[in-house]
Amino acid sequence: MAVSAFVTGASGFVGTNLVHLLVEKGYQIRALVRNPDRVPHLHTLGIDLIPGDLNVNPADLAQQMQGCSVLFHVAAHYSLWQRDRDILHQSNVLGTRNILAAARQAGIERTVYTSSVAAIGVDPSGQPGTEAYQSPPEKLIGDYKKSKYWAEQEAVNAVQQGQDIVIVNPSTPIGPWDAKPTPTGEMILKFLRGQMPVYVETGLNLIHVRDVVMGHLLALEKGKRGDRYILGHQNLTLGEILNRLATLTGLPRPWGAIPIQLPLAVAWIDEMLLTKLGKPPSVPIAGVQMARQKMFYDASKAVKELGLPQSPIDQALQDAIDWFQEHGYA
């Protein structure tokens, strides 16, 4: 008999790729989405789309989960704007508390909770971060990272109350179905459109999004209850990523890196002053502050214990480029 899985966040980047994988593997899927009419790409997969969100009565969510044996809680709100502090807490922290309470009421046997390396933070020693490191929450940059930390604590607390939960912490996924798109997807699009003459040097850990979703399935099958697993692959500076994009596309790379003080000043003016005059902000302060840190991570635990795939990053970049071009983004 096919395993029945309840999935939140199925319309997002990781969630869409996860649903594709689960369908391929023969799972029966029930996906919670805000508005089924706005996710036409999911209608062709033969899955059960349930209208709703995380911030309802847990008993109502539990009713929608009846008959499912596993939960993939992927949904999260992403924003770097200070104005979104409350919605980040409501969606990420309280929403996680709700869905885990509902899973407990519904008798879900095992949950895979999608956290993020954002919840771990950056190791001040300069070494790539591991699952054993945890930044103090007050040192995490921006309300999004803080919300992911506190959301992960909801999962930790639920484990302590007896729930079977495995936590996965994706780094920076790259690949197809980045429809919104993510900040890294936006960077690729700006490069493809020739809208990135300069950049601020930083560092990211990249991984193919298909490896990330396979990591979710492997965590379900092999993960240790209460453990967390970094789903990542290769640490690269932004300059190195842009060089790879130039090689793959034949397009010119940006002229070079600029001092971080310049975009930081723009962000401060944009978010702290111009927004008060009614101008939509374009550069978040938290986003620029993050660039000061090389967000490098070590995924060897997931590779060793779960068998996390490590597809070539050039393939991930090429798949992202192809998807954006095929769908009219660039």
Describe the structure.
- There is one protein chain.
- The chain contains 12 helices and 13 strands.
- It has about 325 residues and is α/β, with parallel strands linked by helices.
- The chain has a domain at about 5-175 and about 205-235 and about 295-310: Rossmann fold, CATH 3.40.50.720.
- It has a 7-stranded parallel sheet, with helices on both faces. Strands 7, 9, 11 and 13 form a 4-stranded mixed sheet that branches. A two-stranded parallel sheet has the order 8-12.
Write out key terms for the chains shown.
Hopanoid-assoc_sugar_epimerase, NAD(P)-dependent_oxidoreduct, Epimerase_deHydtase, Rossmann fold, alpha/beta, 330 residues, NAD-dependent epimerase/dehydratase family protein
Produce a short descriptive summary:
By secondary structure, this protein is of the alpha/beta class. It is 43% helix and 16% strand. It holds the Pfam family Epimerase.
